[in-house]
Amino acid sequence: MIIGLLTAVAASACYGTGSVLQAVGSRKSARQEAAKASTTGVTQHGGPSLSSTAKAAVTWEFMVGTVLDFIGFGLGALAARLLPLFLSQTVISANLVITAVLSIKLLGIRLSRAEWGSISVVCAALVLLATAAGPEGSGHTPIATHWWLLAAAVVLIGGGTLLVRLMGSRAAILAGLLSGLGFGALGVGVRVLNGADPFHLPTLLADPALYAILVAGLGGMYLHTVALQIGSVNGATAALVVGETVVPGILGVVWLGDASRPGFAWVAVLGFVVAVAGAVAVAWFGEPEPSEETGTGKEHGTDTQPGADTEHAGAGTAAGTGTEAGTGTEVGSGRSAAGPSAHSLAASPKR
Predict the structure, then answer these.
(1) Model-level pTM?
(2) 323 or 210: which carries more pLDDT confidence?
(3) If DSSP states are collapsed to H, E and C, what string results for the chain?
């Protein structure tokens, strides 16, 4: 249990740091697209195009963040086999706390008291869960359920990607939630994977769960990148937390035999519900507040002079304006990337 908890905490640290670095890279790419007055960086619905997302992925910050994600994935996979899913997934999802704290320095964000309170609630809930967790289930399931897991991963990532592209700039929370569901499916797949312990390559390659892991993992990373491009990093990450904890936690108990310590079932349920509620609260308080200017947004192709000051920090302009690069607006979103109490990237000096 102790080794599993330490592994999950290390995975959480990697994921949290990686998320912020990916956000830095994504927003740097978005500012460069805006500086070029590019119309190819967004879809017709206002969301980031595939080319824009690909450009974000080749910034050094994003690449370092991705390396940390892969390390976190390996540690998280180990934790999923050592702990009940409702504990391992929830501890890993505490990367939200690390994301929020690092965002203060790297993204110039100021967290409100409500956000700090919500983060504290999540941490307290994790203590309850760790106290109540019992032994993990066996993970042995019929091969037919592995095929169902693969089908669910394909539908989730394929359908979710299409829906997010259609919704455009309004899809930040949805993209974060879908990416979380993808990572949750990945955790379930790791738990039921055949041929991993003991290692047997032919059995491993013949298991549909392996391909469910690949689809869910890669698709989840893509959707998370989109979410970071078009919305609050804390809000998108909090939505991801809900997606990667609730469904896997329930499946672990109902399907895989995960259990709490005798007499501690109510503590486990309380901790799980409070952890999810705290993550939702961070998502709620982390969303940008509409202001008079943000709500209207300037029309595509206005003649604003480069470097012109806006009346309020964080007021957004649509992609294609002549506003100076680095204003902190999201490409095509027409709003500030920062949360309600956050400084936008424009407020910080250029590096």
Answers:
(1) 0.64
(2) 210
(3) CHHHHHHHHHHHHHHHHHHHHHHHHHHHHHHHHHHCCCCCCECCCCCECHHHHHHHHCCHHHHHHHHHHHHHHHHHHHHHHHCCHHHHHHHHCCHHHHHHHHHHHHCCCCCCHHHHHHHHHHHHHHHHHHHHECCCCCCCCCHHHHHHHHHHHHHHHHHHHHHHHHHHHHCHHHHHHHHHHHHHHHHHHHHHCCCECCECHHHHHHCHHHHHHHHHHHHHHHHHHHHHHHCCHHHHHHHHHHHHHHHHHHHHHHCCCCCECCCCHHHHHHHHHHHHHHHHHHHHHCCCCCCHHHHHCECCCCCCCCCCCCCCCCCCECCCCCCCCCCCECCCCCCECCCCCCCCHHHCCCC
